[in-house]
Amino acid sequence: MSETAAAVLKRIFGYDAFRPGQDAIIEAVCQGRDALVLMPTGGGKSLCYQIPALLRPGTGLVISPLIALMQDQVAALRANGVAAAGLNSSLPAAEQNRIEQQLRDGALDLLYVAPERLAQERTLALLAQCELALIAIDEAHCVSQWGHDFRPEYMQLGALADAFPGVPRMALTATADEPTRREIIERLHLEAAEHYVGGFDRPNIRYAIAERAQGREQILRFIQREHPGEAGIVYCLSRRGVEETAAWLMARGLTALPYHAGLPSEDRHRHQHRFLHEDGVIVVATIAFGMGIDKPDVRFVAHLDLPGSIESYYQETGRAGRDGLAADAFMLYGLNDVVRRRQMLESGESSEARKRVERHKLDTMLGLCETTTCRRQSLLKYFGQDMPQPCGNCDNCQEPPLTYDGSTDAQKALSAVYRTGQRFGVGHLIDLLRGNATDKIGKFGHADLKTFGCGNETSIAAWRGIYRQLVAGGLLAVDIDGYGGLRLTEAAMPVLRGQRELQLRRPTETKKTRTRTGRRVVEAGDQDLFDALRAWRLDTAQEAGVPPYVVFHDATLAALAAQRPADLDALADVPGIGASKLERYGAEVLQVINAALAPS
């Protein structure tokens, strides 16, 4: 290797220094060692295989689960002057043949393929004729049957160890708890691989979780106050919810496009293309959208419904702020989400062992919602990472929730469950506590119970919050019988008998959404230049037929707006501008800066 990794980083990608952990991984792979790499989304995993592929002889083979992700990464590499290509079913036969010949000729630095294509004998025979620099298996958590993104095709990738002995192999992912890591190692035959866990913290993302009241109105206010005109993703649990929410947001002036597996493929492709190629587009989606989305300037991810696990939540929120600039993860939830999630889980065809694991994951997700301490500390603890001090960048840190001795309220709530036979849902129990003489109350004779009306001074919203906290705390369980009835657990008995005090969180329905103060992508004085650079970038990207971030990331535009370079030498010092982009765009960028700063 005549060139160092640091020199390639600067010349090709325009950065002066590696992020924490990158240099050690690159050095190990360059020396021919296998690696298991866990890095947060946006932490720089791609460079960990791209740079060794450029330094080692041969072509770097990258296995990627989605065609859209391959296309984005290939376009970004080519913009940086790297010889990259992707083999996938969307290409015409002539183009596939041309790429295969480039591979045989050793003219490619990196080749991206899908796991399905790699399983074909023809593809393996082609690769056997070539010199491979390395094999990188991206989104490696897809190999785990316990994971949220399981892909059966990944199970076959363990055979690469025998097919290409001596070629260093890498498994990379942003989401893997300890059981998933063990499964990745076992199924991909990486027992001898070196492990690199780069941490799970994304300090630029602000986490906020709120009780759902008027869900769409809350999401709309959040977008209007925090991210007007910016790109984002809104996740919903159902296809119907996706379509109705997208239409509702569109009717209120936002560019909001639906995305779910039930849409015609041409609609999905068109909506994803607009999201990647235009500025300020919002996608409203089920979890069918997102894995492999490489768009770095997603400024927010919002959840209208509770995710099924912390892994899913972390993976989905990690699609915000991949460029390292300020971003938001905003989630709404309610007890009905838990009921729906558990009904879906129990009605599924998974084994009882799998269902038991998923129940625990759902309970842990609800616990994150109800915690009164730092959200980030709880999130990182789940992945085995300790954060000594609260983060200061979540809702609980910035606006600490108020707690109170809720022992008496808890006793009333638990007593209502017990006295009604442990088979009714929250709505009926709240009617009982508040003394509402509904037809259902009369039908079952519940107006004669001691608990009837004993909580009439407490609001409906407050009672819902109390019941949700009791479920999250393991004092109540939800029966999945179609009605969401509640029953007591063993943990409830000391509280019900007055033997244990219980701190509860006060309702947060009046909690105000914070303002944007202090969380701008650029300083106020640089905004006009930043906007001018974005407009130039959009025109340039559309002319080239690539997403805007392939030209430059928002982080690079923000640095340009702040540093205001006056010549090509100064421009070369801006992060994200390598030699190829300096030659291609340098003169135009300087013209935009000069025009924007010229006296009017």
Which short descriptors sum up this protein?
about 600 residues; six-stranded parallel beta sheet; 27 helices; about 10% strand; globular
Give an account of the 3D structure.
It is built from 27 helices and 17 strands. Helix 2 (about 20-30) packs parallel to helix 3, helix 15 crosses helix 21 and helix 19 (about 425-435) packs across helix 21. About 45% of the residues are buried. The protein has about 600 residues and is of the alpha/beta class. The strands form four sheets. Strands 3-4-2-5-6-1-7 form a seven-stranded parallel β-sheet, sandwiched between helices. It has a six-stranded parallel β-sheet with strand order 8-13-12-9-11-10, sandwiched between helices. About 45% of the residues lie in helices and about 10% in strands. The two termini are about 50 Å apart.
Note the total helix count: 27
Based on CA inertia axes, which overall geometry fits?
A: globular
| Oligomer description | single chain
Helices and strands: which structural class? alpha/beta
- Biggest sheet strand order reads 3-4-2-5-6-1-7
Helical residues, percent: 40-55%
Mean pLDDT: 89
Beta-strand portion reads 5-15%
* Main pleated sheet: 7 strands, parallel
Question: How many β-strand runs?
Answer: 17
Report the uncertain regions: 509-518
Radius of gyration: 27 Å
The end-to-end span amounts to 52 Å
